[in-house]
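Dear U.,

For the methods section draft, I wanted the exact inputs and outputs in one place so we can describe them consistently. I've listed the two proteins in the order they'll appear in the manuscript figures. Please don't edit the token lines directly; just add comments below if something needs changing.

First protein:
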Amino acid sequence: MTSTHAQLAYENLRSRLIAGEFQPGSRIRYGPIGQELGISATPVREAMGLLANEGFVELVPQLGAVVRSVSRTELIELYEMREAIEPYAAAKAAQRAGRSQLDAIGRTLKRMQALATRVDHSKTKVAGRQVTADFEKADLAFHMLIIEATGNQTMVRSGESSNALMRVFATERHAYDAELMKSTCRDHQQIFDAIASNNPVAASDAMQQHIASGLAITLDNLDSQRNHRWETL
């Protein structure tokens, strides 16, 4: 049974991993995390065991917990899992979502649009760390609210796991510039409009296209980063 302090550490670290605070390959030290949370290192170690079981970190002898790095194949597999779940979920949401659920999805979309507008009006047109974290958080919420609208709890657990892992592994894949943020919002608007108009076919198609586009962007950036590393050797 997980202790209260271990649960606190688990929830804190999991949210920070999803937000991209810890880069893939980086070490997470038990002691400093415990000091931040006002607890000992023991429950932090217990929390790391839970996160390792979920695939977020690896427990390495003499080092402790290290944030996992993802291979190209694993990244594709995560997107394939999403592609199997989320278009179906969007179709079901178009049939089952109630007014309160639609309102929640709509509010999350507006939050993303506001962040995209802020970055678009900035001098650099590139999101800083906090805006990126806020955008990722809203993006995850948008997708999870749609899955939750199906009422299928097994699907919710699977969808949350694949979405969360993808965000941890993809923290290095690209910077959020204004164009990418606006493109994401346009995709989400199409998905939302289809769900709100009770059109399951359009909702499924829009979600499938959105996920396929996300995979293409992610792989393109991954390949660009690898090519850049070779060029600098």
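Second protein (the one for the lower panel):
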Amino acid sequence: MAKMLINTYKISILNHIKNKPKGCANTVPALTKQPKMEAVMANLKVRISTTQEQEIWKPVKGFEYFYEISNYGRVRSYRVNNLPLKRAKKPKILKGSVGPHYRGVAFGRGNYFTVHTLVAKHFIPNPDNKPEVNHKDGNKLNNFYKNLEWATHQENMLHASQTGLTPNKGEQNSFAELSKQQVIQIRDIFDNSDIMIKTLAERFNVHRRTISRIVKRETWRHI
């Protein structure tokens, strides 16, 4: 059975290579400078050596023949010089790359994945089918599975705001219903006319409480 699965996977690889469009652009982000990646990998080794929990490896879904992901956020490869069918006896740890925000790895041309997403998909249940993965400690390079959690976009943005990763004033607040220009307009109308809060709420399609807090300067106090 195992031999049959391997043969099937080999055939799928050959078909993928055969059908790959010529001149297809490489979508993998450029690697960062090597010293930075070496520091990341060194910190990861220290974390593994100082944590009592065993490192567990699982085949990466869709790439089972060549790649594995661990609960510590390490990725290893069994590829041999990018040969499509040969599998190495001993794997090598992939350093990957660090983009603007996250660490990622490439499984061949056009197959780029962020490490934290791979860890979450293989080690963290997602019963509510939430679309994003949040780093609990705010460190986007700490991909240990206990530091990750599934989240909605709003939950992710709220956590980023609470931990100081993103500013939370005005339009940059993930829960903002109005733009800066609209807030200025609301205050101008309220201060210079007899239009009531209820009417403004209907005009701008928000709750009356939202308008009330704006005109009282309880919110948007920075403008």
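Candidate sentences for the figure legend, describing the second protein: The chain has two domains: 2-8+29-162, 170-215. Strands lie at 57-59, 67-70, 75-79, 87-93, 97-98, 103-106, 112-114, 132-135, 148-151.

Thanks,
Y.
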